[in-house]
Specification:
The chain has about 425 residues and is of the alpha/beta class. The protein folds into two domains: about 5-30 and about 280-405, Lyase, Ornithine Decarboxylase, Chain A, domain 1, CATH 2.40.37; about 105-270, Alpha-Beta Barrel (TIM Barrel), CATH 3.20.20.10. It contains twelve helices and 21 strands. The strands form three sheets. Strands 4, 14, 15, 16, 17, 18, 19, 20 and 21 form a nine-stranded mixed beta sheet that branches. A hairpin with a 2-residue loop joins strand 1 (about 5) and strand 2 (about 10-15). The radius of gyration is 23 Å and the shape is globular. The N and C termini lie far apart (about 60 Å). Bound molecules: ligand LLP. Ligand LLP binds near residues 199, 238, 277 and 370.
Length: about 425
């Protein structure tokens, strides 16, 4: 569904005009559509309704507690990678028994907190982590439920920074070590083997790599079960990619069908960890043009958001569609759309057509995933506010940060030069 549409020449989020949102809450501002979040979650979950499954939303994609709360109310589980994310999920009313804990560097305190909370499963990524978890569980008189994240050595054909399933990546245990480690874990007193896990990368726009990874995992499942070790679930990791511009990601129903075929006759519960698919196209970043600057070679539209608000273009050279909030009939000019930060990498888009003047609003689409959650305070810029639109209502789900808040943790120790 597309929750952001033009009505009377003005872009709206559901029933609310983005001009009124900018007026009321200021810019820059992240705007999310509740209907789009709900619809993406249902699409994923319904596609697998024929099987016992659990969607564990990958919190890192967008960790606002209002969004976590919405997913929790729809029965979602959560994929977390830190104590901070655990605390957010609990604060948002998430069910701890539906949490999987991923990540290569889990600290002791994080393991303890997750054990205390009673999470569903630790996705273990190394032998050293296995030993640490067993020791901690022992010291607490607990049994930790685990799966191994296995690296299937499959090329996800995505941006190298977000490709994780190749032998040279830091993620997961090597495929050829998996059987030995399962046998070892099975003999450890304070661990209980629950399943198997893999995650080959993000923004995958083809089904084939998912299927290739699953096939390799299923071969392992058979080998592990031949050793008498029962696995109750298979976690296939992150979700489908989304459309930013020209990409043509498969329909979730086709993706589901391809996986379900491979899984036929197997009793395992399925776990998914989608992030981007659930939130990416449900959000945009609303920003105002501060200046139009006509340089010697290029025109620049300097806006009031920057790489600290949306890092994806600077970090991955990622493309986001940029549109004017008010449609105009006049012909435009080509602009570099840039922020105020003192770096050439501070851009939202290159060579975009705009027929705009100073003070106009523009929207950067597909910014719901890895937008706000990757934002920073670089250049001492307070972070944007976040608005959740539900029909004709706009809810502030995060207030705009103040500069006072930015300095609140800092101290003047009174040292002299
Ligand atoms: N599970 C694990 C273990 C992950 O590492 C990730 C994403 C996911 C699930 C969710 O993947 P998704 O369904 O969103 O593709 N900042 C980058 C994306 C980094 C993805 C990191 N891991 C970006 O803006 O494109």
């Amino acid at each position: 569904m597309n929750p952001f549409r033009y009505k009377n020449g003005v872009l709206h989020a559901e029933e609310v005009s983005l001009e009124s949102i900018a007026e009321e809450f200021g810019t820059p501002c992240y705007v999310y559509s509740k209907a789009a979040l709900v619809s993406a979650f249902r699409a994923y979950s319904n596609a697998f309704s024929s099987r016992d499954h659990l969607v564990c939303y990958a919190v890192k994609a967008n960790s606002n507690i209002a969004i976590l709360n919405l997913f929790a109310k729809m029965g979602s589980g959560f994929d977390i990678v830190s104590l901070g994310e655990l605390e957010r999920v609990l604060m948002a009313g998430g069910n701890p028994s539906k949490i999987v804990f991923s990540g290569v560097g889990k600290r002791e305190d994080e393991m303890k907190a997750a054990l205390l909370a009673g999470i569903f499963c630790f996705n273990v990524e190394s032998e050293a982590e296995l030993e640490r978890l067993n020791n901690i569980a022992k010291s607490m008189g607990e049994k930790a439920r685990i799966s191994f994240r296995v690296n299937p050595n499959v090329d996800a054909k995505t941006h190298p920074y977000i490709s994780t399933g190749l032998r040279q990546n830091k993620f997961g245990i090597p495929y050829d070590d998996a059987l030995r480690l399962y046998v070892r874990a099975n003999a450890m007193e304070n661990l209980k083997i629950a399943g198997i896990d893999c995650h080959i990368g993000s923004q995958l726009t083809e089904i084939l790599p998912f299927v290739a990874a699953l096939e390799k995992i299923l071969l392992l499942v058979d080998e592990i079960e031949r050793e008498g070790i029962r696995l109750s679930h298979i976690d296939v990791g992150g979700g489908l990619g989304i459309r930013y511009s020209e990409e043509n990601p498969p329909e979730v129903s086709d993706y589901a069908q391809a996986l379900l075929e491979k899984l036929e006759g197997r009793p395992h519960k399925l776990i998914f960890e989608p992030g981007r698919f659930l939130v990416g196209n449900a959000g945009l970043l609303l920003t105002r043009i501060e200046y139009l600057k006509h340089g010697e070679e290029k025109n620049f539209a300097i806006v009031d958001c920057a790489m600290n608000d949306l890092m994806r273009p600077a970090l991955y050279d990622a493309y986001h569609e940029i549109v004017q909030v008010r449609q105009v009939a006049i012909e435009g000019e080509t602009y570099e759309i840039v922020g105020p930060v003192c770096e050439t990498g501070d851009f939202l888009g290159h060579g975009r057509n705009l027929a705009a003047k100073e003070g106009d609003l523009i929207a950067t689409r597909s910014a719901g995933a890895y937008g706000m959650s990757m934002s920073s305070n670089y250049n001492s810029r307070p972070r944007a506010c976040e608005i959740l639109v539900d029909g004709s209502l706009s809810h502030v789900i995060r207030e705009r940060e103040t500069t006072g808040q930015l300095m609140a943790q800092e101290k003047l120790p009174g040292v002299e030069p």
